[in-house]
Queue: 4 jobs
Job 1
Amino acid sequence: MIDAQAVRDAARALAGVAVRTPLHYVEALGVHLKLELLQPMGAFKIRGAYNAIRKLPEAARRCGVITYSSGNHGQAVAYAACYVGMRAVIVMPETAPAVKVAGVKRWGGEVVLAGRTSEDRQQKAEQIAKREGLTIISPFDHPDIVEGQATLGLEIAEQLPDVASVVVPVGGGGLIAGVVVGLEAAGSAARVWGVEPTGAPKLQRSLAAGRPERLDRTASIADGLITLSVGAVPFAELNRRRSRVAGIVLVEDASIREAMHFLWRDCRLAVEPSGAATTAAVRSGAVRPAAPAVVVVSGGNVDPSLLED
């Protein structure tokens, strides 16, 4: 179980690497947006990726790291590895958005394309890791990743001490588990809403079943939220703190597109589909968070064409 001291240690280590992103109140929504798209590589993933890399032993650092990612975690690992002077190999899907592939390469990451599913990428990464002696940095299913993401919850509680609810997008579960853990570490009583695309309800089904459930297939415009299952580590951390989870809601792709256009048109924020899912949940009425509420805008690595009306 991740404890409060570990989260505070991770927050101190991230100083100067990750940005303490601002809260931006949007009157039309009645919520504060937590602008994680302002991180150096454009998404919250730097928190977990750097925390995992900084804890590697020296021998592992000399060999390098590898991960499997649809985009933002890959960019975060590439950025963190570049920051500490390590080699990083990123296995991405053949369908990865060009903006995210370019982002990985910008930070010196070596891109390998493999298949279309997270299983395809994971299998390829495991093969390369074994052959080349690289350490795998999981996108979400590791305590160090959840611990790093927990700094987001800690930060929200420090910025808005009376926060009552936080709305978080759900992919593999690392972010929502981290936010719950971080709020707890800060002594906050805020409860957390998770948002998934209707085409990828893995956490909703897992919580109902009492164990991680694997979906046969997933599909959504929100490419960062379509894992087939949530990780065992995030699920365990959430399951220990079920009373802190207000609920898991689903949003349609049409609502996500509308939210992206709203954020661009009214807030001048270029937000990727996965990052706009939480705003979509509020605008569609899928969730009505208790105020004061914070909506996590998780990333901004978006193809500009998606912002066109």
Job 2
Amino acid sequence: MMSDNPSPILYSFRRCPYAMRARMGLLLTHRQVELREVVLKDKPQSLLSYSPKGTVPVLILPTGQVIEQSLEIIDWAITTSNGLLKPPTPEQARLIAANDTEFKTALDHYKYFDRFPAQSQQDYREQGQRFLSQLEQRLNQQPYLFGEQISYPDIAIFPFIRQFAHVDLVWFEQADYPLLKSWLTSFLTSENFMTCMTKYKQWQTDSPVTNFGLTSEAFL
């Protein structure tokens, strides 16, 4: 069914941090996909047929293989390209795991605190700040989380820091994380992020093909 389409298909939602990091990973590995923008309240049947859980991102390869996790999409892009990203080291993987578990839980409770009345919004924010402080300490040593260049953890983590910041942007702008804020700004003002956050209309079965990203040949 997929053999006539030379490009993988990416079901995505612009503001989802998981989809965001997948798109950034594809950009930095110079992979091109057919992007299908999803409205989460009106998910296309084709997405559900490939991935019944109905979350994004989901990547459909020309072989018909379905990749349903954002980090696995980045892993696939790395192994099939000559782009800028490399697989994470064990230490990098641990930091990403901390982001995706403890910090993501604190973020969700902070953002949707009215759903979790056991503690206050400030309590949940303070829980998330433990991770922010950890990143701030890392950035005291180098401009990116693991050195002088962007690496896998930067791409995997920054969309969630962006989401945390936007819960209360006034507070975040005044918070004592100067290095973290500078690091985040470097991504949010980058050309890749502008491309990543391009607005697309909701995909329909009769929509024209939307190509996203660049093939490696574009960089030769």
Job 3
Amino acid sequence: MKYVIFLGDGMGDYPIKELGNKTPLQAADKPNIDSLVRKARCGLFKTLPEGLPKGSDTANLSVLGYNPRTCSEGRGVLEAASMGVDVAKDEIILRCNVICVKDGKIKNHSAGNISSEEAAILMKDLNEKLGSDKVKFYPGVSYRHILVLKGDCFSKKVDCTAPHDVPGVEMEKVMVKGDKATSEFLNDLIRKSNLVLESHPVNVGRSKRGEDKANYIWPWSPGRKPCMEAFFAKYGKSGAVISAVDLLQGIGVCIGLDVIKVKGATGLSNTNYEGKADAVIEGLKGHDFVYCHVEASDEAGHDGDYELKTKTIEYLDKRLIGRALNRMGEVDDEVCIAVLPDHYTPCAKRTHSTEPVPFLIYNPSKKGDSINKYDEESCRKGSFGTLEGDQFIRHLFA
């Protein structure tokens, strides 16, 4: 038996008036996922344990059967692993967004989904003007970058607010708190970044085109180098991860999964769904397990765009899952298939929330629950009930 997880980041949502009081999952036309659910067993899965950050790092570690309470060191260090950034014992790694602040308030966490090419120019200039032997910026994908602080003078015991949690909030009200020296240093760095970015030629051009400026950095999710058990040692299966974003690729690196990169994978609704579908099939030919992550629905949720979120679910269904299902016959074994989000990203809240997520597991050798549609409410009726911890992955591999 081989195994694949199709994960639509942030697909879970609340009923939306404009969608006829349906969620995007309920409103979307998704014939392929719905055909799977009719043959699958279903349930809900609590991916975000109480008291932990509501982040995709926490949620995806849970999906993969790792306890985020014991192995999570924040998403910055995971993304650094994906980018090939070596982390020393005396270094603290933070995720570093470029964000848009307007009239003193955080307009969005993504600087209007700035391109990777533009953001790389900004990171280079930030490094030249604000970098030092203690401070280093590393460019990533779109708005997602890395900040490294080196030296025993810095502490990871700081309270950093995730920028996607506070759209519309005054920036000064959600600055870094905690360890005095480190928080003051980071807050000073945030303010100084505006002096570099506000009138930068990249932002002048974006403003002329009516696009949001990337006029501040926003460091968050601090941590040190993690130690995690290898996936093969834990589950006895070889594996690969497919994702556009450094976070998921970094988790893969840290637990020994091969990273399959797909040309044209962007982390947005314009990602290469077909390329990811083909990568799933090729990945299953050489691995026991493939984890295929799609970011687009999460970004639409953060933007509060319910129409786009619905479309991203339809793209996931038809262009990725449908294409992969049509090619499953090329795999030399039966394939067990799971579909789920990592967490909710409700359009009304524009940030993550902690409800248990709906999931399906289709195993061709087992009888399904005879549920007709895949969505938040239908999966509540499934025979798995509500799972937590490593129960989901162990049921998948059972």
Job 4
Amino acid sequence: MARSADFFSFLGLPRKLNLDMADLEQRYRALSRQFHPDYFYNAPAAERRASLEQSSYLNDAYRALKNPVSRIEYLLQVEGVAPKSAADSAKQVPPALLEEVFALNEELDDVRELRAGGAPADQWKARLERARTPIDTKRTEHESQLQQLAAQWDAAVDSGAPDEQRRKILQSLRERFLERNYITNLLAGIERELSQ
């Protein structure tokens, strides 16, 4: 099997987002047995090296495809619409989140002032918990939107939809994915504040 194949085709799967996890596991185990370096210990050096590379690639493919979030990220990469880098995607606030980010940053500043002024922990922690609620709601909405877009993508793949239709779905997936990452970072910031 060619290492240059994308993870989906390497595992003999369609380039879809809703995968049968039992099937993925079965394919992974079958290929693991086929490529495992232990079966090549008496083989020439080139075959041993190829076995190691194939086994490593298989592990990378399995890790990427078994998790729904990393599967979306990988699909975006393969389709050429992924963010340039994690740093680039973290720098720009998605327009749909500007208001929430502004309100959260103000609340975090207020909480820091309260904490620095010696306010009781239960007072500022309660404010952080209230600030988390709309962000958690946004995350739930985004998870639902990602699932809907994944279903649209899979239907487009199954029907052989034109490239233009697929690109629209991929662009929407990319936007929701970037927003999801930003939401995750916002929630991580709240968690950091709560742990202080």
